Structures are given as C-alpha cells and as structure tokens.
Amino acid sequence: MRVLVVYCHPVEDSFCAALRDAAVAAIHAKGCEAHVLDLYAEDFDPVMRAGERRGYNEHAPDDPALQPHIERLRWAEAMVFVYPTWWYGLPAMLKGWLDRVWAKDVAFTFDNARPTMEPLMGHIRKIAVVTTCGAPWWWSVLVGQPGRKTITRGIRGLCGWRCRTTYMAHYLMDSSTPESRKAFLDKVKRRLERF
C-alpha cells in the first residue's frame, strides 16, 4: 500500500517529529511504501490568493507549485496526518494545504447542473490522524473537536465509501511527561501496524 504522510509542524525536533518517525516506521514494518510531505520543510504557501479563488469552482488548481502535491495525493492509497492541534483545529499551514490541494477536479468535481459534489478520492482507503492537544480530552469533546471532524468526516467523505479512519491524540500535551510521550509513541506504532 502507498501511504502519504502529511506532516505539519514548524519545529524540527518537536514531539510531532517523533510521531512522524514512529508512523513511518510502522508503515515500513507493514511492508508498505511511505512518502512524507513535510509542509513546513517544503515552505508550502497556504494562502489562497484572489485569482486562485476566482477559478476555484471552474477548474483544478493551475499553480505549478501545487502539482507535486496533487500528484502525491493521486499516488496515495492511504494517508496519515501528523500535526499539533492548535485552538482545537488544524494548524493554518495544514488547513491551507487542504484548501488549495483538495480542490475541484482533484478531490471532487461538480457542475452547475447538480447541487452536489462527486468525490474523486476513491483510491484512498484508509486515513489516520496522529495529533497532540494541549487541552484534556473532555474539553476537546465539549468544544466539538473541529480538527478531528475536518479530516475523519469532511476529508473522509471525499474518499472511498469504505474508507476507514483512526484518530489518535495525546491530550494534555503541555503537561506531558517522558512516560506519557513514550506511551503515546508506542500506541501510535501498534495502532498503525494493525491499521
């Protein structure tokens, strides 16, 4: 299986980097192929400019900088998102990547004759989220977990109808300990090897 790991964290030696490495190790342990898309290392521009927005409903993105991202998205059979949860949602860089890459004639299509979108990501059969969150789990649930829902519901809705999802979060990250971080790394490896 070809797995696209979308990694989004600005600090090279962050705990999220360790989570990314654990995810890649688990993917390789299953005998799968992994490609890491490091949005910060690639200096991805998350900003959708006026011209791009004006053409958004008409055609696929034509910015040459987006083409390698679109090709990787089309290559993937599974995806693993690794990022910190900030303000209960996705980092702006990751949200901008979704805005600009998961676009018309890439992730979905529609025309003015039909009011609904047609998903184009049927080749994605599995989606995993690995994240950290400063808040406790109960507060995240109370707030509604917008980041989790964006990927495990919204993005998943554009994938194959049998697409499976899994969500793993290290809550209370700001008061984490070496033991809690190690336990979470082990959990990520185990769950992704089974997933």
Can you characterise this structure?
The mean pLDDT is 95. The protein is α/β, with parallel strands linked by helices and 195 residues long. The strands form 2 sheets. It has a 5-stranded parallel β-sheet, sandwiched between helices. The protein has a two-stranded antiparallel sheet with strand order 4-5. It has one domain (2-194): Flavodoxin domain (Rossmann fold, 3-Layer(aba) Sandwich). The radius of gyration is 17 Å and the shape is globular. It is 38% helix and 20% strand.
In short:
The protein has 195 residues and is an alpha/beta fold. It contains seven helices and seven strands, in the order βαβααβαβββααβα. Helix content is 38%, strand content 20%.
Specify the number of helices. Answer: 7
Task: Say which CATH homologous superfamily is assigned.
Answer: Flavodoxin domain
The level-1 CATH class? Alpha Beta
Q: Percent helix among the residues? A: 25-40%
Identify the strand order in the major beta sheet: 2-1-3-6-7
Report strand %: 15-25%
Pick out its properties:
195 residues, alpha/beta, Rossmann fold, two-stranded antiparallel sheet, globular
